[in-house]
Amino acid sequence: MFCPARLALLFTALAVAPCAQAQAQAQHTFGLHLVSYHEPDKTYNNTNPGMYYRHPDGWTAGFYRNSVRRDSIYIGYTWKYGIFDITTAGVSGYFDKVQPLLVPSVSLGTWYGVTPRIAYIPRVEKKIGSHVLHLMLEF
Question: What is the pTM of this model?
Answer without folding.
Answer: 0.76
